[in-house]
Structure prediction request, 675 residues.
Amino acid sequence: MAQVLKNHGKNRQTNAAYRLRRSKNVRRPPTPFDSRCTIMKLCQFILPLVFLATACSGTMTVVDGTGSDAGPLDAAPDVSRDAPGDGNLVRVPEAHRAQADACDHVRGPGSWPPSVDAGQDTGVPESECYSDSDCTAGINGRCNNEGRMPSGSCTYDKCFNDSECGGTNVCKCSANSGGANVCLASGNCRVDANCGDNYCSPSFGSCGAYLGTVGYYCHTREDECVDDKDCKSSQPGQGAGYCAFEPTVGHWKCSYTACAG
Amino acid sequence: MNRLRENFVVAFAVATAFATGCSTGADSPQQRDELSSDARAYLHNATFRRQTLEESLVNKSNGYSELRLAKYKDDAWGALPEWNPPVRAITAADIGTSNAPRVVDSAGDSTFQTLDIDVAEDEASLIELGRRAFASYPMQILPQMRIALAEQTPKSVGIWEDDDRVGGLQWVALPGNAVESAVTCATCHATVENGSLIAGKNAADLQFGRITSLAFGGGASSAWGSGRVDVTADEVDNPVAIPDLRPIRFQHNLHRAATLTNNLPSLAVRIETLIITSLHETVRPPRTVALGLAMYLMSLGENANVPARDHRGAAIFEQTCARCHQGAERSGPPVALEIVGTDRAVGESPERTTGMYRVPSLRFVGDRRRLFAAGQADDLADVLSPTRKAAGHRFGFDLSEEDRAALTEFVRLF
Prediction:
């Protein structure tokens, strides 16, 4: 199971932990293949061209939904898949959206006041709010401070189900009392059925685990990973990564970085 | 005979004058435009690039260094495909909707273009390429920008507007007919003041954390504050103030934590690897773009002021500040965190730490905001104020009010 990334001042969660709270595991028939795709071991070191089809061929190893504990990986993860043209293409991700769940209308109190002494060295500009009652511009307004620096900001529930979001956008339910329900305006699926024989899973964005899920994307034949546990790199300078949809290549791959800077 | 000698002397003098006037001196346009040997080596010599990286890393044991030492090689990051995607500037017409445009419209036309990187390898051409790339080359794909602008005005979230451009943001054409919003260097490192774009100056009002929080429903980024971004994946809450790039040519070190030594090729390598990691090691920028950006940034400070030495504040500066902010650059070697005394979170980042903070160049500091590593001090006056809330950097606190005013006035002239 991917490790929890929660840390001081940062309410981060892994993709898997976040998704499992809101999705249901749907077991699909496993595909009984035995051999490993050895070419994928090289893919960790030779990153694919933008428009390169997968070089992987051959048969696939069954990996069930729970998976086994995975230690540091020096080789490419066992992103087992069928031969092209076969049915299921990717092992069942630990988190995927088989059906759309509605968000509840109950929201706990905001996280303000902050846990740090506002008199400490911060220099952060004034807060937007100092109590939940200050947040009146929308539904279920809450005043939150989720970082090291004491600065309150208002958040509001923007939706309670997908139909309120339009297009193919997903209504992301808040992960905690401070977070808000929002319409995710990025992504290319709402539920597994949108992805043919593949799965629709939540993904972090370019700034990493800071934001939680930023969109739901279909898994593809070209994926380099399926779950966060596939991304425990042994490369120096890269710790616990995450499996995310990478828009520059159009498929899922391991990522380790944060916002540009 | 005398007339013949006289004519010879005149002729010789004239010939000498012509020869002198036609010789190529140090200031000839041809020599000014030639690339330095380092710049040319960066473009064409992998061994030089690797050596530059190794020599620039101050602490080879932090995460930043280890990752680059492992992957900045021809058979790793060097093997990534070059990326120069079709882009289109996000304009005022895009505000109010989160829908991305099509790359090709119903009439079969496209307003998307790739950056023209086919330029001559000379100084002027590469600086011009860098200038164009500064506000058009996509540094990181960030859908939260278009999502936030669907409901917020640019001003309300600190995004600058200039003519029809919005924050230097770009639509980027991606695989699978996808289009997404991206930031450029200019998004964070430019401002608009009095109707003019100031390239390099930090976007002190940019609420990047709030933009992200609004788009995706909360999170630690909501508390970053204006002009700050957490750029390290070190699982520590340590947002850093967006730096002012105008004085980069004067900087002794790069990064707040003094992670790198600074010169043209090391800056080019830094920019190149920044883009690679920001795009999750899937692609790399054209090296002409990385070098062009470095050269363009280095050119920003060419016209920085040099205040008069007889200013009353000059002597006070020498006594109070010049031990660290040295020479004409007003910068210097990095200083231990405990000596600086300000908040240590940025300096202790496991990803970038050197045990020191860089000494920021004071060139252009007069109108700079969000000073110190995490932006704890509002501006120059706040830095020198004995009643400042933020701790540390107490240099000059014991000055008289009169001396402090003279010092402040002097430093504002840099």
